[in-house]
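Chain A, query sequence.
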Amino acid sequence: MPQTHFAAFIEKRNGEIMSEQKNGLQRLIQELRNRRVFRVAAVYLGIGFAILEAADIVIPMLGLPEIIMVVLLGLLMIGFPIATTLSWHLQLTAEGLRRSPKSGEKQTVNQKPLTSNALIILLLIVITVLLAYPRIIDEKPANTYVADVDAPMLDSKSVAVLPFTNFSSSDEDAYFADGIHDDILTQLSKIHGLKVISRTTMIRYKDTEKSMGEIAKEVGAANILEGSVRRAGDAVRIVAQLIKAQSDEHLWAETYDREYADIFSIQTDVARKIASALKTTLTPEEEQNLDAIPTQNMEAYDYFLRGNTYWYTKTTKEGNLKAVAMYERAVKLDPTFGLAFARLSIVHAVLYQSPNWDPTPERRELSWKTLEKAQALIPEHSETRFAQGIYNLWCLEDSKSALLEFEVAAKLNPNSGEVFQHMGQLYLFAGEWDKAGEYLNRAFELDPHDVGNAGWLGGYNFLKRNFDKAEALYRKELHVNPEMSQLYRWYADVWAYGFGNMQKALQLFDEGSVMSDNPESLHGYRFWHELNARKYEQAMTTAASHPNSQSIFYYKSIANFFLGNSEVQSTYLDSALQQTIDRKLSTIRAEAFRQGRIGLIHALQGKKVQAINAGKKAMDLTPASEDALNGPDHVYRLAEIYAISGDTETAIATLDDLMSYPNTTTIWRIKLNPFFDSLRDHSDYLKLIAKHGVSA
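Chain A, predicted structure.
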């Protein structure tokens, strides 16, 4: 064959092969289309995207771990090739699963797969809604706090100190890096011209991958201080740099290579350099405060830092006892360590004030003795004045003198969210709502992650009947401190008495029984919520398992009242009354609650006069005018006594008055309470319910 003919033959053959390949590809594509593989793939991807978007919204709301998103993504990726492969062989139709048709096969309407255009359009609508949801709902995730200001509006003298990176060879020195971080914060807080973001807010950015700009926006600070610590024996290297977050401009940086004994001079120098970089002039008093050295004994300082670690990170009884042990080692090594004595007094008072921890005279005496030491060593230090306030409040129940001490402490340290929180609490008790809101908001702004700041602000909003705000704040507090048992009770109250959602309220008690550090303390509150949900048999079970033997007969008598077991109820009431009378109490507030309980028992016994007298005595012991938190509870209990005793109009009038000022009485609390069932057909009751916007 001539060469030219051979070349032509080869070219023709290649063309035929390419044409065959092209036709084969076209046939494959046509077959894929005919078997609806492309549609299945599109629908699968759409559903998968919708699932991921929904999960991205729901997971933070429920406080679930982020690993769930990774697992979902992995499962969806694994499922894609499986779904497309199955669609080649099978199709889901109105008649069920059928073999996928080959090219040319005709199908009836019922035999066509359920991947119609309508389904795809519906998916697009769902995806659009999910994408728009975060923009429509102005709600931050429960685990973040975003400042309500833009970067240009941030205070130019606001500083956030990131946790220092620990480069020490020993992991045991991690507490040292945290201690340096804490002490630099303390030094900066002494400078009134600076706004310093608190430790508990910043500690959450340990090992963060977020940018400086993101952190600054979230915590509301214009400047970020970051650094690292390396410790080897008595040698310390500290590297620190101050950055203007918005522009990433380095305002100041320095490396310190010193002996461990020079650690206080390093902290003081860092504070001065930051003040200078932010053009803040120090007063002579601030200069003197910065130069103050807490201890010359570095081993004592070491134990002090360890105690701080337990104090700030462990809110349990065991955590506080470990903090006590560390502080005691510190003051034993240095009997002139005033700061350690002040903090030791505070921890003793914390242990004393909890009825489930150590409310003994011995613990109260320890708090006083260590406070005396602090007063002798550093009488005008903010920590000493704060410790005095804590002692007055929790050991002496003297809220007025406690408030005076807190006010002095706040002036000495204007960046302490801890002090402002306690001031807000006391103004709540006093019924000074504007001041309470001011100080509780101030505490939350300074330290949204500190124990109790979100919770107390949530309580304030609940008392003011701002239930949406209260719910968001309690949710945040519970995410930060899931071990705090009382949070489950307060959060359940919002859902029950704010929104009338008993299912959610009881679910929170279930969570608290697993997650909290003291689930037994929730038994009594669970009992009342089960009564409100009309789950009387369940309430009886809860009453029988109550950990406080002195309350079992009381709760059992009430459960039997609603179950209609009059004979059993009568026996339990006699026992409950005797147990209540025999209880030894040490405070007026506790005596008021005892009188309220006696009043309710007498009402259930049919002793109307004795019941009302006891209820009024409880009100007189803790009047609402002097205790805006607990006083109204005794008024509410008296309304229950009136209702049980058949004094319907007085009961309704009492409830109507309670609804006129901030307290824990809500219209849902009235509607749900089975003691008020006898009021429900009365015209005044219907007017009361209608007045507050809830249908009877």
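Residues 133-152 have pLDDT under 50 and may be disordered. The chain has four domains: 35-136, 151-291, 298-413, 491-691.
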